[in-house]
Write a structure and sequence with these properties.
The complex is a heterodimer of chains A (256) and B (233). The relative contact order of chain A is 0.18. In chain A, 26% of the residues lie in helices and 36% in strands. In chain A, helix 2 crosses helix 3 (143-157). Chain A has a single domain, classed as GHMP Kinase, N-terminal domain (Ribosomal Protein S5, domain 2, 2-Layer Sandwich), CATH 3.30.230.70. Chain A is elongated and about 65 Å long. In chain A, the strands form 3 sheets. In chain A, strands 1, 2, 3, 4, 5 and 6 form a 6-stranded mixed sheet that branches. A 4-stranded antiparallel sheet of chain A has the order 10-9-11-12, sandwiched between helices. Chain A is built from 5 helices and 12 strands. The longest helix of chain A is centred in the last third of the chain and has 19 residues, at 235-253. With 256 residues, chain A is an alpha+beta fold. Chain B has 233 residues and is α+β, with helices and mostly antiparallel strands. Chain B has a single domain (17-232), classed as Ribosomal Protein S5, domain 2 (2-Layer Sandwich). Helices cover 30% and strands 29% of the residues of chain B. Chain B has 4 helices and 9 strands. Chain B has helices spanning 85-99, 125-139, 166-171, 199-232; strands spanning 17-21, 29-35, 38-49, 62-69, 110-120, 149-156, 159-161, 175-182, 187-191. Chain B has a 5-stranded mixed sheet. A 4-stranded antiparallel sheet of chain B has the order 7-6-8-9, sandwiched between helices. In chain B, helix 1 (85-99) crosses helix 2 and helix 2 (125-139) runs parallel beside helix 4 (199-232). The longest helix of chain B has 34 residues, at 199-232. The termini of chain B are far apart. The chains are: A alpha+beta (256), B alpha+beta (233). At the A-B interface, strand 3 and strand 6 of A face strand 3 and strand 5 of B.
Chain lengths: 256, 233
């Protein structure tokens, strides 16, 4: 975004006015659907305004990692599909996709959303792997929060597949869901000039100086965090940004 | 002679179809086409500049299709992202089945990109992809001779089946004949076969397939008209 346009944007934000008429701390409408892909053990579609992502969970029986022989495996992958934006190209995931995947992964892992010990079948030999893939359908800004919300909703929607003689029978699902305890909610606050906004449109995303992503657990504790953008942040600013995140997370939690 | 289909369909009955255009606002054209539990979503970008330059054709624009199954969309193991020999071949077949209805004479050196994503699959994915892609190309406002409709015909236990699902195709080993049909030309632009069938039956099966594709054509046209009806409201 060119500088004069950005200055204009900042002036508007200072008056609490945004491109689409929202307040600076207001999300667009959120729509969530579950069970949208029948082949997956769990799936969800999340729309935030015009932004749309799909998340699906596949389960498999695999060997555990050597350092966690009694725990199930988690894998999170994000695909910024070329279908969803003229900016994205086909090919292996770039830094942006990898960051989304890793931030979502840490939110789930660190908040202990899934009780991984209960995913152990035989110590050191067989555990359940939970593989979450997030695919973007339309990018109209804030893919990150949408991806996190889709991932957690898909986990919640997941049912174990049936197992016959240690082989997974993907055609039949059981009624048993994943062992879940806490729910991380990921919210990102963007700093543009001296203003803080949430749920940016693509145009606002182009203009941000710094951002703070945080995954918040049920008790409002912070489970994962990542600072992004080119500008550094003061501790005072980080405090303010976390205030906004902690105010918004419970609202998003209600949508689950 | 009546064959039992897992979804209780008659031999000549298609799966329930759903079609919609303009589903991806960031794209120049987009559409979704669903037959039973096979769902393809497609976006079209272009015509725009083609890079690297040596791929450009100074005579006309080119069409480039990318077919991909989402990692969780299969009915077995997770599909590893990044493409496979299968997805490359299908991408090419989708391209060939659509190119003849497109007029890209006026777009030298340019490319039209078509991204076909499968969100869930139950056989017939390339056909659903072609149906959605032809609607998305029309939605993008490209000059076209006609829409293309596609479906997988099958032959199992002496009976001709339309729009086969994965139970029939993969589990029961039906002969699988995916076709794409251009109504105004009365010609097929996609034809493959895996199985075992006599010439007589094959030709009969293709005739039935043609008729069924006309039903799909109606669904596609209705979806395109609906978008503009909504807009004029």
């Amino acid at each position: 975004m060119n500088n004069s346009l950005k200055q204009h944007l900042i002036k508007s934000l200072q008056k609490n006015i945004r491109y689409d008429g929202r307040k600076i701390d207001e999300f667009r409408d959120i729509k969530i659907e579950t069970g949208v892909s029948h082949g997956a053990e769990g799936s969800a579609r999340v729309k935030i305004g015009e932004t749309e992502v799909l998340a699906g969970v596949k389960m498999a029986i695999e060997k555990p990692y050597p350092d966690t022989p009694e725990k199930g495996n988690l894998m999170v992958n994000a695909e910024l599909l070329a279908l969803s934006s003229p900016e994205f190209e086909p090919g292996p995931p770039g830094a942006k996709a990898i960051e989304i995947a890793r931030v979502v992964d840490r939110g789930i892992r660190e908040s202990k959303a899934i009780d991984f010990e209960k995913l152990c079948i035989e110590k050191g030999e067989k555990v359940w792997s939970v593989m979450i893939d997030v695919c973007t359908i339309n990018d109209a800004g804030n893919l990150l929060d949408a991806a996190a919300l889709a991932a957690i909703t898909a986990i919640k929607n997941t049912k174990f597949p049936a197992v016959k003689d240690d082989v997974v029978d993907y055609k039949n699902k059981t009624a048993k869901g994943l062992p879940l305890s806490r729910w991380p909610i990921t919210v990102t606050v963007y700093k543009i000039g001296d203003c803080f906004i949430v749920d940016p449109l693509s145009e606002e995303e182009d203009a941000y100086d710094a951002r703070l992503i945080a995954a918040i657990a049920d008790d409002n504790n912070v489970c994962a965090m990542q600072k992004g953008g080119v500008e550094p942040l003061s501790i005072e600013e980080i405090g303010k940004m976390l205030d906004i995140i902690q105010k918004i997370a419970p609202k998003l939690r209600k949508k689950l | 002679m009546t064959i039992k289909r897992i979804d209780k369909r008659k031999a000549d009955e298609m799966r329930p179809m759903k079609a919609e255009v303009g589903v991806i606002p960031s794209a120049d054209g987009s559409a979704v086409f669903q037959a039973g539990n096979t769902r393809a979503i497609v976006s079209v970008f272009g015509p725009h500049d083609l890079h690297p330059k040596f791929l450009q054709n100074p005579e006309r624009g080119i069409l480039r299709c990318h077919y991909n199954m989402m990692p969780f969309s299969g009915h077995g193991d997770r599909v590893r992202p990044g493409g496979s020999r299968r997805s490359k071949e299908i991408s090419m077949l989708i391209e060939k089945s659509l190119i003849s209805v497109l007029d890209l004479e006026n777009f030298p050196n340019a490319v039209v990109d078509v991204f076909v994503e499968l969100t869930e699959t139950d056989a017939g994915t390339r056909c659903a992809g072609i149906c959605a892609a032809s609607m998305a190309l029309a939605d993008a406002g490209l000059k076209m001779k006609d829409l293309v409709s596609a479906m997988s015909m099958g032959y199992l236990d002496g009976e001709i089946l339309v729009d086969i699902n994965s139970d029939e195709d993969c589990d029961r080993g039906a002969t699988d004949v995916p076709i794409a049909f251009i109504p105004s030309e009365d010609k097929l632009s996609l034809l493959q076969l895996d199985g075992d069938v006599s010439k007589e039956i094959l030709l009969k099966l293709l005739e039935i397939g043609k008729q069924k594709c006309l039903e799909i054509d109606q669904v596609q046209r209705k979806a395109l008209k609906n978008k503009f009806k909504e807009r004029l409201k």
